[in-house]
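User: Second chain of the day. Same drill as before.
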Amino acid sequence: MGREVRMVAKDWQHPKRDNGSYVPLLGGSYSAAEKEFLKIANEKGLQEAVDYMGCPEKENYMPDWAENEATYYMMYEDTSEGTPISPAFETPEALARWLTDNNASAFAGQTATYESWLRVANGGFACSAVLHHGVIENGVDALSR
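Assistant: Same format as last time:
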């Protein structure tokens, strides 16, 4: 759980609730989750699939875009199911610059360097935090070293 880049369509607007807060969405696609669920159900039984995954529901997942549609980079927190912490950008560099310039949260009140955000924006993942020599550091910076 931490920060991850998700590829989205150019004009993607993450859904919001009536109160303006983001609706958490699981990463990946519903069709992939559905295939995994059916595979487990067929191999180990329906109860095992439910115990392992719950019952996948389409509205809980990111859209199933065609590969040529999901060309923009958007940073998500995935401590919950996943909500955006940035707008969508055409390049990883533009995303990393926005995250740095806007002091985006890498963990709690901590921000991260441009280089650290760029590593994650280029397809990486960062856990929320790392404990190193008794100091808690955000995972975005800690994993860049």
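The helical segments are 30-44, 46-53, 92-101, 114-121, 139-142.

User: Great, on to the next one.
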